[in-house]
Amino acid sequence: MIRLATLAAAALMAAAAPVAAAAPPAPVQTATGPGVQIEAVRAWLTEKGGTVSAVNRRDGETWISISDGPLTWVIFFYSCQADVCGDIQYAASFSNPTITQAMINDWNRDRRFLKAFFTPGEAGGDNTAVVQYDVLIQEGSVEQLTDHTALWLELVNAFGTTVGFFAADAPAAE
Fold it and tell me: What is the spatial distance between Cα 40 and Cα 158, in angstroms, rounded to a whole number?
């Protein structure tokens, strides 16, 4: 699967193994209520093997992009105060001429957690499918994203296969 797909196994091993002395520490969580620091999320994803963009901000939205093999996905940050955010949304977009509204409807009917929407291609362009997964953040460290990120990676890979981004008979990426 994707490089970050080993996240769940790595998280279990990390809980049992000491942290390497050479690894830089992730930013310390300073919020007293629910939320995660944006920079802590960036550092955590980088530590897990993703290539993570700088923080992007435009028109009131804040996000980071994660490149992981052939797939690029995004985390949007919401309900933020001083860069500590109370909820996030994982998102990815796929475009190709074989994506149909029926394909997206079937996905939404048959699957939980990731919800998708369809946008028809304009002026002969490819159809697009966007898939999203929302997470309400609890009080605690960025490690609370471990299970959510593992679920996201598993399901976004399945969605990518469904819409023809990955070949159905071959592993998505290594």
Answer: 28
